Amino acid sequence: MVGEEGAFVLGWDEVLTEEELSMTLKVLCMSEEEFKEYKEQDGWEDDSEDEENSTLSNEALSRLKTPCKKLLYDSVLLTLESYGADLKAEQDLLNNKEAYEKLSRREQQALHVRYGQKRILHQLLELVQ
Fold first, then answer.
1. Distance between CA atoms of 124 and 62, rounded to whole angstroms?
2. What domains are there in the chain, each with its CATH number?
3. How far apart are CA 82 and CA 99, in angstroms?
4. Each residue of 5-52: pLDDT tens digit?
5. What residues does 57 pair with on adjacent strands?
6. Residue 66: how many other CB atoms lie within 10 Å
7. What's residue 126's pLDDT?
8. Which stretches of sequence are listed as region Disordered (predicted)?
9. Which end of the chain is less crowded, N or C, counting CB atoms within 10 A of the terminal residue's CB?
């Protein structure tokens, strides 16, 4: 369900791998009985019409059912824990011109990427709280 990458791709305004995330949330939030039925039917019948109308925008994420929101929230927390430093530490380093300039060009670029990723994850935390 997650795909070859093993991760979901989030943007500022929506989930870019919305089909995979939507399917994963549906399956992981099923009751045992619902999951058995799902397996017996080899998935759902053609839900393509529903899927087309359910873009996982930031607004839609904030309206998810509580179990799905909790699952996403906990997953984001685990992802954030996997980083070496928190968002504030990255922001402080970006704002400290002297320390920032001591970084190699590659380290500066990595810092910007990590900072952007963490900001998106923190935004998602707020949406699903």
1. 9
2. 18-128 (3.90.1420.10)
3. 23
4. 677 888 888 888 888 888 888 889 998 998 888 888 876 665 544 444
5. 14
6. 9
7. 94
8. 39-58
9. C
Residue 23: strand, helix, or coil: helix
Q: Output b/e per residue, 93-113; b: 16+ Cβ within 10 A.
A: beeeeeeeeeeeeeeeeebee
Q: Which conformational region is residue 40 in: left (phi greater than 0), alpha (psi within -120 to 50 degrees), or beta?
A: alpha
Tokens of 31: 């009751």
Q: Please, what's the b/e burial string for 21-37 (b: 16 or more CB within 10 A of its CB; e: otherwise)?
A: bbbbbeeebeeeeeeee
Sign of the four-CA dihedral 112, 117, 118, 120: positive
